[in-house]
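REVIEWER CHECKLIST
Item 1: Sequence provided? yes
Item 2: Single chain? yes
Item 3: Sequence as submitted:
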Amino acid sequence: MNREKTEQEIREDLRKQFAALYGDAEGVRFFFAPGRVNLIGEHTDYNGGHVFPCALTIGTYAAARKREDDKIRFFSMNGKGNTFTEYRTDDLEPAGKSGWTMYPLGVVWAFAGRGMKLPSGFEMVIYGNIPGGSGLSSSASLEVLTGFVLKSLYGFSVDGVTLAQIGQYSENHYNGMNCGIMDQFASAMGKKDHAIFLDTADLSYTYAPVVLDGMKIVITNSKVKHQLTDSGYNDRRRSCEEALAELQKVVDIRALGDLTPERFEEVKSAIADEDRRRKAKHAVYENARTVRAVEALKEGDIPAFGRLMNESHVSLRDDYDVSCPEVDILAEEAWKIPGVLGARITGGGFGGCTVAIVRNEAVAEYQQTLSRVYRERTGIEAEFYVVDIGDGPREIV
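Item 4: Structure as written out by the authors:
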């Protein structure tokens, strides 16, 4: 396995690439924003419910510098070929644009929409060490990174919550992905060794210490990403909105997250379509699971937390229909391994990763067993990341 580069090695690689592209690296500044993993609370963030994500120590790095003219230049060291993309500060509309630069450019556009127009352009080189298609929020990491770069280079007064809101708005309205705010919030507001218990109805939040004595958080990458991702996500959000409208005819709620499971069972017949009813059920029950899981964590009851993770996966598989055969294998086989307290799909779904809590002495067996079974059943080599919980965005000096 290749050794992971240190932050200073990544910084030096960025500096060299920046100088090669733009002539020199004088005055360049370096930045980082993390990816995230959600421990529990999936597809609740756009349903007025609770989520429980944490920032990771992997993410997206940038070398950036202001320009004197109106040009905006992007280059990714993760891409193929030595080409960069150029825009102008007065040409930010999404029409005719495509590719990964839509994410940072959308943030520039959203800043301008809030009255923070750039007085000049900038040039940026990025490098990410979040595995592509893993569901660990490389897009949100890039959005928050860009917002933090703009704040730092131009002196805009924006806090972490605002950075998250700008990132979500740009992804919704510039990129056409109707995501909730969880991914951007976790990246912008991350705190080392803590997860964020966020109420997406009003953005109130608390930090909960993640104390896993003798245990590790292990992310397993299925290495698959099914094509349904964007359309399937938007379809499910629309189903929840339609179910909410039907429920609001019989009960006074603002969001599905306002309902307890017990109250949902009393009024669910107001939802005419069985598929919509299952989607709404997941949103309601997952919210309740998340609240209980955080209570269990605070009480030091990690086995209870793990059981709720397992229940979350079953609901995402059976009610919300966002899992897939490959990820189901990873979760269901993990449940059979002694020392695994819980495992579930994480992220938007249709592929990507599972997240598991594994006792230290079982981590090696977990990786060996899952790797073998997954290869035998799918022909794919899974990837494993034993992760640490990190801070939010920052400048690297």
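Item 5: Key structural point noted by reviewer: The first strand starts at residue 29 and ends at 40.
Item 6: Recommendation: ____
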